[in-house]
């Protein structure tokens, strides 16, 4: 019995260590904000040089997207976001995309290739794609891509990382005047 006891302890220590690593990872990736909290305002410059402030869009639903041209899951999600924008985008719903990047040309190509036709795109150049060290990403404590925040009119966070299908259903209910309307791009 004494020979098996050290093995059991080794297994228990190994399982406890794995549990601590998983718990640490879970808490590390928790978003800074919760549903119902106000999203912080930020200022940025659009690619054409026009200044932008998130406050400008407080009268509508806003999907704030943090993504990267180098991020496979982000690129896979972009066509569905483009379809969502074609369906609801405009006076009551906008998408604001913040690219966490090292290469401006690659970011521009990804926007065009993925059909991201909405007008609000910003790039945050960061020296490390591992730590997302850029002002807006830091303000929102972004630690993984993609990260989505759905803001309701008034600027409160309604959902964090919603599934696209759930987002479509929610916008369909909330934007009753736009049901069935497809935008031409």
Describe the protein's architecture and organization.
- This protein has 185 residues and is an alpha/beta fold.
- It folds into 2 domains: 1-30; 33-178, Glutaredoxin.
- Helices cover 37% and strands 20% of the residues.
- It has 5 helices and 7 strands.
- The strands form 2 sheets. A 5-stranded mixed beta sheet has the order 5-4-3-6-7. Strands 1-2 form a two-stranded antiparallel ribbon.
- Helix 2 (72-88) links the parallel strand 3 (61-67) and strand 4.
- Helix 2 (72-88) packs parallel to helix 5 (164-174).
- The protein is globular, with a radius of gyration of 20 Å.
For the biggest sheet, the summary is: 5 strands, mixed
Oligomeric state? single chain
What is the CATH fold-level name of the largest domain? Glutaredoxin
- What count of structural domains? 2
Average pLDDT confidence is 85
A few lines on this structure:
The protein is of the alpha/beta class and 185 residues long.
């Amino acid at each position: 019995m004494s020979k098996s006891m050290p093995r059991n302890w080794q297994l228990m220590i190994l399982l406890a260590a794995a549990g601590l690593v998983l718990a640490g990872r879970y808490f590390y990736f928790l978003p800074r904000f919760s549903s119902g909290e106000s999203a912080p305002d930020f200022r940025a410059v659009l690619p054409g040089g026009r200044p932008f402030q998130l406050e400008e869009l407080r009268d509508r639903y806003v999907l704030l997207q943090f993504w990267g041209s180098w991020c496979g899951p982000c690129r896979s999600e972009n066509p569905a976001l483009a379809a969502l924008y074609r369906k609801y985008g405009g006076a009551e719903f906008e998408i604001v995309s913040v690219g966490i990047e090292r290469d401006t040309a690659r970011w521009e190509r990804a926007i065009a290739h993925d059909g991201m036709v909405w007008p609000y795109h910003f790039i945050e150049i960061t020296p490390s794609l591992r730590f997302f060290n850029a002002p807006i990403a830091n303000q929102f404590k972004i630690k993984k891509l993609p990260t989505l925040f759905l803001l309701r009119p008034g600027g409160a966070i309604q959902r964090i990382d919603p599934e696209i299908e759930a987002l479509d259903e929610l916008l369909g209910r909330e934007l009753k005047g736009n049901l069935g309307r497809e935008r031409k791009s």
